[in-house]
Amino acid sequence: MTITEDIGKQASIDGFAHEHIVAGILMKKYQNVSRVDLPLSPYDLIIVQKLPEENENIIRAQVKTAKRSVRFTGGSRGGVDREYKSDIKTYVQSPKTSDVIIGIHPNPDRSFDLYFIPTILIQYFGTKSKSLGAIDVLKDNYYFLERCKDQDFIITKSLEYGII
C-alpha cells in the first residue's frame, strides 16, 4: 500500500470509530441511541429523546470527524475508494437529509469534543464547512442538539451568539 492509501484507510477507520464513540457518549445521556446500518443513508445515528407526557423527539444525526472544521457535505467517497462510481452525487446536508451534524473533534489527551450543528443553519452559513473556532459556542452544547429542529430557537440563539 502507498502512503496515500494508508492515510485513506485510517481516515475510513477513524470515521467508523467516531460514529461508535459519538453513539456511546450520547447513549450515556439519552439512552435510546442507535447507529443506522444503511450505507446509503444521509444520517448515521438516530437519537430518541424522551419528552414529557411520554412523547419522543426523534433526531437524525450525521457524524463528521472534525480536526479543524466540520464539513456539511455527503455522498462522496474518500481515501482508497475515491474513484468509487455510483449514482450517488455529493450533496450539502439540509433538514431534508438530517436534523443535526455532530462534529467530533479528537483532542490530544484522547478525549473528544462534540459540536452540534443543526442543519437549519447551513443555508445561513452559505458554505460547505465551518471552522471549529467559528462555531465554538456549539461545542458540547446539548441544548442545541435537543432543539435542533426548532427553527425560531436556533436562529434566535445563533444570531445572539454571532455565528450567523
Describe the structure in your own words.
The chain is of the alpha+beta class and 164 residues long. It has one domain (3-161): Trna Endonuclease, Chain: A, domain 1, CATH 3.40.1350. The chain has four helices and nine strands. It has helices at 3-30, 122-125, 142-146, 151-161, and strands at residues 33-35, 45-50, 56-65, 69-71, 73-74, 91-92, 100-106, 112-118, 129-131. The strands form three sheets. The protein has a five-stranded mixed β-sheet with strand order 1-2-3-7-8. Strands 4-9 form a two-stranded antiparallel ribbon. A hairpin with a 5-residue loop joins strand 7 (100-106) and strand 8.
Instruction: Summarize the helix and strand pattern as letters.
Output: HEEEEEEEEHEHH
* Amino- and carboxy-terminal Cα gap: 44 Å
For the biggest β-sheet, the strand order reads 1-2-3-7-8
Provide the residue-averaged pLDDT.
89
Helix content: 25-40%
Oligomer: single chain
Shape: globular
Largest sheet at a glance? 5 strands, mixed
Give the class-level CATH name.
Answer: Alpha Beta
* Total beta-strand segments: 9
| Structure classification | alpha+beta
CATH hierarchy: architecture:
3-Layer(aba) Sandwich
Rg over CA atoms: 16 Å
Low-confidence stretches: none
The fraction of residues in strands falls at 25-35%
Tally of helical segments: 4
Q: Tally the structural domains.
A: 1
- Quote the CATH topology: Trna Endonuclease, Chain: A, domain 1
